[in-house]
Amino acid sequence: MSGPRDIRMMVLLLAGAMAAYVTYRHPAAGQPVTVGGLVVTVLYMLMNDDGN
After folding, report:
1. d(C-alpha 7, C-alpha 41), whole Å
2. In terms of Cα–Cα distance, which of 20, 39, 37 is closest to 29?
3. Quick one: pLDDT at residue 52?
4. Contact (CB, 8 A) for 4 and 10
5. Taking the model in full, what pTM does it have?
6. Residue 51 has what pLDDT?
7. Phi, psi values for residue 48, rounded to 5°
8. Angle, alpha carbons 30-35-39 (nearest 5°)
9. CA distances from 51 to 5, 15, 41 (A)
10. Core-most of 36, 43, 44, 49, by most CB within 10 Å?
11. C-beta of residue 30 within 8 angstroms of C-beta of residue 23
């Protein structure tokens, strides 16, 4: 992996980490691992959409 993919992966990891941290600090928002994983999954799907 190089170039734009590295940046995308970093954004995915940071978004997942931030979502997990927020839900960890505020348990009413949901379980941290689930929410973090969902955020990463949705972003990954959106980033891999090549306009189709």
Report:
1. 16
2. 20
3. 53
4. no
5. 0.59
6. 53
7. -90, 0
8. 150
9. 16, 22, 18
10. 36
11. yes
The tokens 């949705």 sit on which residue?
Answer: 42
Task: Give me the chain's average pLDDT, please.
Answer: 76
For residues 25-34, average pLDDT: 75
Residue from 28, 10, 29 nearest 19 by CA: 29
Band (43; pLDDT cuts 50, 70, 90): confident
DSSP 52: -
- Check if the beta carbon of residue 12 is closer than 8 Å to that of residue 40: yes
Q: Give the chain's largest Cα–Cα span.
A: 38
b/e per residue 21-50 (b: at least 16 CB within 10 A) = eebeeeeeeeebeebbeebbeebeeeeeee
